[in-house]
Amino acid sequence: MQDFLQQTLSGRPPAQRQGSNAHLHWQWHDEGILSLTPHTPTQQALVLSAGIHGNETAPVEILNLLLTPLLQGEKPLAVRLLVILGNPAALRSGKRYQHYDINRLFGGRWQQVADVPEAQRALQLEQALENFWCECLDHEIRWHLDLHTAIRGSWHTRFGVMPLNSQPWPADFLHWLAAAELEALVFHRAPGGTFTHFSCEHYAAASCTLELGKALPFGENDLTQFSGVQRALAALLYGEALPPVRETPRHYRVAQQITRHGEQFVLHMGPETLNFTAFPQGTLLAEEGERRYYVQQAREYVLFPNPNVAPGLRAGLMLVEESEQTQALEL
To answer: Active-site residues (predicted)?
Structure first.
C-alpha cells in the first residue's frame, strides 16, 4: 500500500491487505482502518484518527503526508499505531456526514439511531479501538489524537478539546500538545459521545480532539498553518526530537451547553461569529419557546455555535478561561 488516503477514497479494498518493510508490519482491517506495528518493541500505543467529519480535509491530508513515508519504508516507526479515517463515505461526498454526526454516537449512543449507516460505522470504530487497546501491554502508554477542523473560523486557529477525565492529565501529554503549537485547550466537565471521550472513558487513554483551522475542500488547505502540529506528530511517530514549546496554551473549561430541542430554536449569533468570541454577563445567547440561555459568568466565550444541528444535539458550548475565573475568585 502506497497511499492510504487514495486507497480509502477509491471505496475498494486493497489488492494486498497486509505487508512489511524494513521497519514495520502493516495490516488493512477494513475501510479506513489500518494498523502499523514496528518490528522493535515500543513503549507507546497511539491512535491517530481524522475524517470523522467528511468535510474536514486538512487533518486527513496531514495524516496521509505523515503515513506515506512509513508505508514506503522511508521512516522508522516509534509507536504501535492505529490509523483511522472515520467516515469514508462522507469524505468521498465532501459532506460533514451522510445522515447523522458520528462524533455524537460513541459509547453505545449509536444504538439510538441504529438504522443509519453512521451508527454501524461508530460500532465498527469502537470495535477497532477495543481490538487495538486490548493488545496493549501493561507498560504501554495509550494516546488518542483525533484530528478535526471547525465549521467556523476561530480566534484560536489551533486548539484542543479534552474529554472529561477522572484522572489528572499526564504531564508529557500536555507538553506534547503545547509543543504542537495549540493556542488553547478546552476541558469538558461532562461526558459526551465523541471518539476521544470513548477512548478516555473506556480505555484510560490520554486523548484530545485537535481542531486545526476551518473546514475546506481537498486541495484548498493552507497546511503551513499547521506545521507545528505536523512537526510534533512526526516527532511522535518517527521517534525524533519534539519541537520546543513556544507558548503555553490558554486553558478554558466548559461553563454551559446550549442544546437545540426542536424547530423553535433560535441562536442569537450570526454566521460570522468566530469560535472564542467573548460575550458579557447577561447576554441572551439562544432561546426556544420559554427556554432561554444567558451568559452566566462575568465573561463567557462561545465554541462550536451551530443552530442547524439535529434536535437534541449541542448547538454551542460556552466557556470560561481558567485564569480569568481564578482572578475573579481571588478578587
So the answer is: 211
Query: Which residues are CB-contacts of 144 (< 8 A; sequence separation ≥ 6)?
Result: 46, 47, 49, 129, 195, 196, 199, 200, 205, 206, 207, 208
Q: Which residues are catalytic?
A: 211
Q: Is 56 annotated as a binding residue?
A: yes
Residue 1 is predicted with a pLDDT of 66
Condensed to tens digits (0 to 9), the pLDDT of residues 57-112 reads: 889 989 999 999 999 999 999 999 999 999 999 999 999 899 999 999 999 999 98
Cα separation, 184 vs 150, whole angstroms: 14
d(CA 220, CA 234): 22
CA distances to 47, 115, 159, 189, 249 from 88, in Å: 17, 18, 24, 31, 32
Q: What is the pTM of this model?
A: 0.91
Sign, CA torsion 315/253/234/194? negative
All three cell numbers of 235, joined, read 516527532
Handedness of CA 182, 183, 188, 189 (dihedral sign): positive
Element (H, E) at 61: helix 58-71
Residue 261 is labelled as binding a ligand: no
Does residue 329 carry a pLDDT above 70?
Answer: no
SS (H, E, C) 202-237: HHCCEEEEEEEEECCCCCCCCHHHHHHHHHHHHHHH
Give me the torsion for CA of 60, 62, 66, 67, rounded to 10°: 10
53 is in an annotated binding site: yes
